[in-house]
Amino acid sequence: MKKIAIIGSGGSGKSTLARKLGEKLKSDVYHLDSLFWKPNWVGVPKEEQRKVQNKLVKKEEWIFDGNYGGTMDIRFNAADTIIFLDIPRIICVYRAFKRILQYHNGTRPDMGEGCEERFSFEFFKWIGEYPRTKRPEILEKLDQHSKDKEIIILNSPKEIKHFLEKV
C-alpha cells in the first residue's frame, strides 16, 4: 500500500481515514477538497484538476481522499490500493450535520482555505442519492480494477477501525 485512493459518500469518513492512514504509513495525504476549492467555494476548473493530479500521482507514495468522478480514473489507474467507504446513508448524513456544527463559521482542516463550513441542500441531496446514483458506478469501476489493484470495501465505522488497527 503505497498509492492509495479513498472514495465514498460525503460524511463516510474519507478525510479522517486518509489522515490516520497517512500518519501510520508516513505518507503524504492529498484532500481533493482542499486542492480544488478556492476561497468562497469557487471550484477549480477540471483541466487544472487533471494537471495537478497527473503530477501528484507520479510520486512514489501518496493517499488521495475524495471522489471527483471526472478525474477519478487518474487516481485509480495510478493507485495500487483503492478503498471504498460504503457506509450507510444515515451515518453519512449524521456525520455531515455534525461537521457543520463542529466547524460552523470556520474551515475544516481538509477543505480549501476560505471555504467556511455551511449547510448545502445540494450536498445533503447528493449524500441521500449516493447509494442509488454513484454507488453502482463505483462498484463497476472497482470490479474493472480488481485484477490489478487491491480493492478494500469497508461497510461500517467498526470495519474502518479494525482496518486501521491491522495496518
Summarize, please.
This protein is of the alpha/beta class. The chain contains eight helices and seven strands.
Commentary on this structure:
There is one protein chain. With 167 residues, the protein is an alpha/beta fold. It has a single domain (3-166), classed as Rossmann fold (3-Layer(aba) Sandwich). Helices cover 50% and strands 16% of the residues. The protein is built from eight helices and seven strands; from the N terminus they run βαβαββαβαβαααβα. The strands form two sheets. A five-stranded parallel sheet has the order 2-5-1-6-7, sandwiched between helices. Strands 3-4 form a two-stranded antiparallel ribbon. Helix 5 runs antiparallel to helix 6 (121-133).
Key descriptive features of the protein:
167 residues, alpha/beta, 50% helix, two-stranded antiparallel ribbon, Rossmann fold, globular
Which series of helices and strands comes N to C? EHEHEEHEHEHHHEH
What is the overall shape? globular
**What would CATH call the homologous superfamily?**
P-loop containing nucleotide triphosphate hydrolases
Largest sheet report: 5 strands, parallel
Give helix % range.
Answer: 40-55%
Sequence of strands across the biggest β-sheet = 2-5-1-6-7
* CATH top level label: Alpha Beta
Question: What integer value in Å does the Rg equal?
Answer: 15 Å
What would you say the CATH architecture is? Answer: 3-Layer(aba) Sandwich
State which percent range the strand residues make up: 15-25%
**How many E strands?**
7
Break the fold down into its secondary structure elements and pairings.
Elements: E1 3-8, H1 14-25, E2 29-31, H2 32-36, E3 37-38, E4 42-43, H3 46-56, E5 62-65, H4 72-78, E6 81-85, H5 89-102, H6 121-133, H7 135-145, E7 150-154, H8 157-166
Parallel strand pairs: 1-5, 1-6, 2-5, 6-7
Antiparallel strand pairs: 3-4
